[in-house]
């Protein structure tokens, strides 16, 4: 079978190792930007197995096999109970499970030092001293906006004053940050922190494999931690041979693969047992467990891309009424 994952050791390391040991799948890779935005339906025409991002599921109906047709109810219930936070439920849409979580992540804080800010007020104070950057490349401007809304006490697009406060926080961080850095994606920001003068990013998707960096739970606002769920799921194309696909899916969620193969080869397992281990997992587990789940309806990925551009360009240009423009774009999407 042919499979597609994404081009980072976290995305391909465990899969390549399992394929080396057991065969069955030849894994291709796509860039992070493709993983975040390329329509799943188009990829399902070429690949049997797909490592997917849950926000794109709404446009994939008819191109994927529901997991209820591959695994029995007891298996699915056991995996739902065994995964961290909303990882499993993020792949359930219209009462059917379109992928199974194999990787878990959320926006967390990262620094070159251990004693990180605990609140957004502390973050803003540190930013005034320099060496702080947000992560706003690709869809991540909108995702930071979402996280700030949750931290300040409201679901995104439900409270204008909270939304405006989120934009204000983002603008203050951009004003004191290096313009060549804050427009990068998470991998680019983490690389800059490893090699350069940036010492802190308050919200970036966590990645194992950066031993010089210290990851911790996201900063808290008045309503507590705000973060957006990431991670990946394994989906099966409607063209895939069902018996072979079923066998691969079962192996990817098996306890030995999740707790041993994934952990040893750069992965971030969805298995909640791993998130009790000391270090990266333990220090970010509360954020992942509480992370907010994005919409998954058709058209969301396009809205996410456009709204992020509006936020990024508007904040960088210090344009007025940036929040109003994002809300208007959201309303357009919902009416479409």
Percentage of residues assigned to helices: 40-55%
Estimated structural class: alpha+beta
Radius of gyration: 19 Å
Approximate shape: globular
Name the helix and strand elements from N-terminus to C-terminus, one letter apiece: EHEHHEHEEEEHHHHEEEEEHHHHH
Largest sheet: 5 strands, mixed
Report the sheet-strand fraction: 5-15%
Q: What does the average pLDDT come to?
A: 96
Ends: how far apart? 37 Å
Strand order of the largest sheet: 2-1-3-12-6
- What is the tally of beta strands? 12
Report the uncertain regions.
none
Please give the count of helices: 13
Please provide a brief summary of the model.
With 336 residues, this protein is an alpha+beta fold. The chain has helices at 9-22, 32-37, 40-44, 73-82, 120-127, 140-151, 160-175, 186-195, 242-252, 255-264, 280-290, 300-316, 322-335; strands at 2-6, 26-30, 49-52, 92-93, 96-97, 100-103, 107-111, 200-205, 214-216, 220-221, 224-225, 232-236.
């Amino acid at each position: 079978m042919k499979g597609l994952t994404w081009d980072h050791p976290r995305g391909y390391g465990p899969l390549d190792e399992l394929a080396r040991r057991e065969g069955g799948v030849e894994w291709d890779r796509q860039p992070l930007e493709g993983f975040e935005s390329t329509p799943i339906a188009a990829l399902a025409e070429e690949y049997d197995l797909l490592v997917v991002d849950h926000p794109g599921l709404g446009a994939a109906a008819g191109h994927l096999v529901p997991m209820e047709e591959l695994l029995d109810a007891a298996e699915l219930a056991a995996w739902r109970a065994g995964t961290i936070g909303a990882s499993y439920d993020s792949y359930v849409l219209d009462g059917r499970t379109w992928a199974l979580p194999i990787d878990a992540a959320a926006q967390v804080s990262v620094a070159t030092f251990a004693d990180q800010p605990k609140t957004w007020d502390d973050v803003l104070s540190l930013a005034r001293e320099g060496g702080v950057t947000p992560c706003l490349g690709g869809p991540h401007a909108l995702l930071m906006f979402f996280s700030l809304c949750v931290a300040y006490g409201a679901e995104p697009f439900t409270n204008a004053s909270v939304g405006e406060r989120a934009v204000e926080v983002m603008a203050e961080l951009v004003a004191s940050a290096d313009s060549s850095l804050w427009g990068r994606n998470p991998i680019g920001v983490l690389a800059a922190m490893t090699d350069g003068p940036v010492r802190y990013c308050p919200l970036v998707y966590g990645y194992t494999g950066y031993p010089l960096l210290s990851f911790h739970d996201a900063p808290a606002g008045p309503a507590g931690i705000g973060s957006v769920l990431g991670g990946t799921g394994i989906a099966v194309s409607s063209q895939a041979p069902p018996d072979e696909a079923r066998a691969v899916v079962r192996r990817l969620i098996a306890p030995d693969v999740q707790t041993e193969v994934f952990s040893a080869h750069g992965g971030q397992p969805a298995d909640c047992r791993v998130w009790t281990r000391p270090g990266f997992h333990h220090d970010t587990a509360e954020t992942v467990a509480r992370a907010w789940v994005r919409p998954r309806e058709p058209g969301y990925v396009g809205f996410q891309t456009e709204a992020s551009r509006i936020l990024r360009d508007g904040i960088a240009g210090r344009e007025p009424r940036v929040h109003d423009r994002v809300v208007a774009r959201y309303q357009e999407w919902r009416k479409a």
